[in-house]
Amino acid sequence: xxxxxxxxxxxxxxxxxxxxxxxxxxxxxxxxxxxxxxxxxxxxxxxxxxxxxxxxxxxxxxxxxxxxxxxxxxxxxxxxxxxxxxxxxxxxxxxxxxxxxxxxxxxxxxxxxxxxxxxxxxxxxxxxxxxxxxxxxxxxxxxxxxxxxxxxxxxxxxxxxxxxxxxxxxxxxxxxxxxxxxxxxxxxxxxxxxxxxxxxxxxxxxxxxxxxxxxxxxxxxxxxxxxxxxxxxxxxxxxxxxxxxxxxxxxxxxxxx
Amino acid sequence: xxxxxxxxxxxxxxxxxxxxxxxxxxxxxxxxxxxxxxxxxxxxxxxxxxxxxxxxxxxxxxxxxxxxxxxxxxxxxxxxxxxxxxxxxxxxxxxxxxxxxxxxxxxxxxxxxxxxxxxxxxxxxxxxxxxxxxxxxxxxxxxxxxxxxxxxxxxxxxxxxxxxxxxxxxxxxxxxxxxxxxxxxxxxxxxxxxxxxxxxxxxxxxxxxxxxxxxxxxxxxxxxxxxxxxxxxxxxxxxxxxx
Lengths: 257, 243
Hints:
The complex is a heterodimer. By secondary structure, chain A is an alpha+beta fold. In chain A, 26% of the residues lie in helices and 26% in strands.
């Protein structure tokens, strides 16, 4: 294969991957607390001269084209919308809700769609309990969650206010390096640093807004324009491939007598 | 004998090379900080005359593609929403150091922290400060000012080095980076860093695609001439040579 064809081939392949990322973002345009993915391309081009400078004496061949080398997750905030459910919570700030997956693993989410399980514990839609566990017992007339994360109930019988729990938010040194675990959950990695738990409030972790949820930070208009750009880029590379193909065909014809 | 054959062949070779350069540019229409090629063709005789003295010029005919250098025009700055993306406004390049200690230049400001907490490109090349030292931010997110000053938790740890280099002294080294032919030709430039954005590719697709069509057509013509010359030679051998 000619190098021109190879360059066009990588262009087509990598823009196909770009389309996959955009499709994934668009599929999650209504997913509460979803954080969009971006793509990063880098060129593969290296000339023989540059290789001679870099690897003097070593035998390396020049390469061509492009690669999609990273899909960084972008954590800019989504808009808030009213859900009407007092157990819905949105975070205004950089924090995450910690949820316990099993005895040893805690995951983190921005999706504050909570409800209570049969034992009265606050759980995510997938049934994972909030960490620290918060239990609401008995008949409840009203339930509040303050911006500082205090869960307060008003009993049906005695009409008295009672604090039943204190929510905590997790903050990371570098949230962009969190690893996605599916179901809107993230797990900490060595690069993101350990979670630092803090009470909601005035700190960088932010405060809680009860009764609201955070929308996906996918911007439809941006994604659709990215989609057009990626499609066009694919087409352009296809044209480049066809041109290279045509030229090689002519080369074959030239040697025919 | 057969000089026309070589002339046509040189045009075809130059066409293939030109096509490769254009295909590379088209493949990188979405590559941050990518800079296109500036190419030209020049006629063969002058090349030979320069290379081998006046005598050689008589032999030469044909054409040669030449890389004049890198097209240094800026690409559009695009907001990415990530604090790890540094768009470079104005002229110049970031200076990075590869694993062997070699200097490279790049305008792709998509940074990561490597295993030891140093600011690096996704190719693993560490970003250098004006003191030529790598910048260690650890696990924290760095704040980078417009003047290239890097702050970690409010404390200044250095300033990003930005240099300009002559367009004809840059060699493509992959990973959106360049090596320089002559490190002495680097001139310090004033950093104009925009955190949260990346510079898009400066490839103009319309230009690249129209150029590719014209290259393909020129190649076709050269191929016709090559075939014609070949037929003439074949006829010469089979008919003129007959006793």
